[in-house]
Amino acid sequence: MIRFENVGMRYSTGPEVLRDVTFTLEGGSFTFLTGPSGAGKTTLLKLMFLSEPPSRGLITLFGYDLATTRRAEFPALRRRIGVVFQDFRLLDHLSAFENVALPLRLSGRRPRDYIADVEELLNWVGLGERMWSKPPTLSGGEQQRVAIARAVVAKPDLLLADEPTGNVDPDMGKRLIRLFAELNRFGTTVLIATHDRTLLENTHAREMRLVDGRLVELRASRQ
Description:
Distance between the termini: 22 Å
Radius of gyration: 17 Å
Strand content: 25-35%
Order of helices and strands: EEEHEEHEHHHEHEEE
């Protein structure tokens, strides 16, 4: 599903943030991307979501070589990806329900076909009583759960999550990881960037570790 070959990334004329990164993510895999703050995890996710081009190297996504793929085709590729951003990127004028339902609405689905699904998902992440509240009235942890629900509601082919449990308590963090695992069980490829190694303890997932922009460890999932 995703292949990086000797990928390097720098912003403007600064030093390289990623250096000679090579790996493959198979379809249906579940992977944690770990490493200290500043290791390059967020930059790697940006490359996968097509929000930044690499400075060098080759990236293949869903079978498309991104170096030769027309930019006009990128929106269709992005629609196959769910993303949980660190800064949430919710629309303040929409309620939690409306933010979560937005990907479904944009895909052309009718409200009567998705209302029950959105309500069920918001209840799962503990926001059943806040679903009609707007983001400015929600805590950071509540906004993060809305962002996660929005990313998974359309059952994307690929889910990218950047520190998705950073603003929630440990019990809710475990619940959210179970949600990702359930999505993965139905075929979604999942990549979670985190510096919280406790998330890995009870999850049979592969681990990729970045240090100073280099992929220094690639550990298979524990059985």
